[in-house]
Amino acid sequence: MRLAKPFIRLPYRFDAARLAAEADALDPSAWMPHPTGLPGNSAVALISSGGGDNDSFEGPKAPTPHLDRCPYTRQVMAGFGEVLSRSRLMKLEGHCEVSLHVDFNYHWYSRVRIHIPVVTNRTVTFHCGRERIHMAAGECWIFDSWRRHRVVNGSGETRIHLVIDTSGSSRFWDLVATVEDADPGEIGANATFVPFEPAKPAPLKVERFANATVMAPGECTALVEDLIADFSANASNDPQLVDAYARLLRGFAYDWREIWLVHGDGAEGVSAYRSLIAKTRQRLHPNRRALTTSSNGIGVNAVFAQRVLNAALAGDPGSPSRERRP
Question: Nearest 5°: phi and psi at 252?
Answer without folding.
Answer: -60, -45
